[in-house]
Amino acid sequence: MNRLRQMTVAVSVATVWTEPDSPRRLDEPALGQPAQIAEWLSAMTIDDKLDLYNGNRVQTQILYGTDVLAAGERDGWVKVFVPEQATRKQSSGYPGWVPKRQLMERNDGPATETWAVVVSNRAPLSFQKSPNRGFELSFLTRLPVLKISGDKVIVHTPHGAAFLNKEHVRIHDKERASIDPPQGHPGIQIVRQGLRFLGLPYLWGGMSSFGYDCSGFAYNMLKSQGIVIPRDASDQAEQGNLVERSRLEPGDLLFFAYEEGKGRVHHVGIYAGDNRMLHSPDSKGCVEIVELNGYKLEREHCVSRRYWTPQKA
Predict the structure, then answer these.
(1) Domain range 5-105, CATH class
(2) Which of 156, 172, 267, 301 is catalytic?
(3) Buried b / exposed e along 93-117 (16+ C-beta atoms within 10 A)
(4) Which one from 172, 214, 301, 302 is the annotated catalytic residue?
(5) Does the keyword Protease apply (predicted)?
(6) Is 159 a catalytic residue?
(7) Worst-scoring range by mean pLDDT, 126-135, 191-200, 225-234?
(8) pTM (two decimals)
(9) Which of 30, 181, 206, 262 has most Cβ atoms within 10 angstroms of its Cβ?
(10) Is residue 286 flagged as an active site residue?
(11) Residue 250 near residue 304, CB atoms below 8 Å
């Protein structure tokens, strides 16, 4: 393996492709600088979205300002590993290819111990030196804070200083923290954060509030509470604490496997209480709540896991 070097995502959402030749012509909006994620998604048919999986085109996605490890280049593309997305595929992080124009050499900028985390579904970012140039950031994008001025938060980005509206972010004194107050039940808070995305169309490989896949939805709703889990459902199903179905609580993860629960894990949802599941189902659907009894995947339920820790009395 080539020596790894650190780079940073320089678009709102970078899609990680299986190979440089994986994208189709219709995927060009997602490959640009800036990436036009909303336009890309709105132009795709259900068959186009299904082909992202069936054609083994997309691996995952990464948000603006996220660090990656670059392993090599080919024809304007960079082979990357995403350290914050744990996977059995590669110990260095989730692997795949990203257009080089969507990455920049890492620039740490001024030292800071304060972070702005996007807590709205989308947050407009504008640049200090180019006010008319900007784009929307996804939920849970995290950027270091340079200064807070009135209703604006000035953050350090790969492109320099930029502005976020204070109402769209939460300020933390550490990089990984819950966006909710610590007094609440973390499982209920996981569900509450997920409910805001009801009706959001599914996206294979999706890891942003422009569209999630099933494991990306679980990953990010737990991440909103400062809980880091593996990227894929099959890996998520092997960690955390085992929970019997009779003892399920909101925020627990439900896993489903082929061959009526005996085969390969292929889906994950979040237990929402009262025998209901909150999940991002498939390329034909949107984030939804379903009754577990009688649901089409009920007989495939194979295991449940709890990653959150009950609050001490």
Answers:
(1) mainly beta
(2) 267
(3) bbbbbbbbbbbbeeeeeeeeebbbb
(4) 214
(5) yes
(6) no
(7) 126-135
(8) 0.95
(9) 206
(10) no
(11) no
